[in-house]
Structure of Putative sec-independent protein translocase protein TatB:
Amino acid sequence: MFGDIGGLEVATIVVLAIVIFGPDKLPKLIQDTMGFIRKIRSFADNAKEDIRSELGPEFQNFDFDDLNPKNFVRKQLLGDGDDPLGLKDLKDSVDLKSALSDPNPTPTASVDFSKAATAASAGPALAAGERPPFDPDAT
């Protein structure tokens, strides 16, 4: 959350806090703020424990970080450490350094699109000027 704040920004905030609140009220303000943050954290931890206890014993190892969309998608695609999609084998089989450093790359495989085009057309060929059939459910 605060990874984008640099040293100059922190120094500016400190100087502004000293100017606005004064050096004699600043320690009390910092203590009050830290106490408030501790209360919020304890409230959140208690709420998480209450949710875990209400869900039952089968959800005791439930991690709330898995609800983050990035973590959820990563966990659903890659699983719990295993590689169901075979991405690790694919990553290991591709050597990008040698492919990028090769001055005269030679294609290792070619694709014939004419076979794919004929396989894709399942129906009879259309006459000249004939309109293709329209399927309202497909659009």
Remarks:
- The chain is about 55% helix and 0% strand.
- The two ends are 43 Å apart (CA to CA).
- The helical segments are 7-21, 26-55, 69-78, 87-93, 96-101, 113-120.
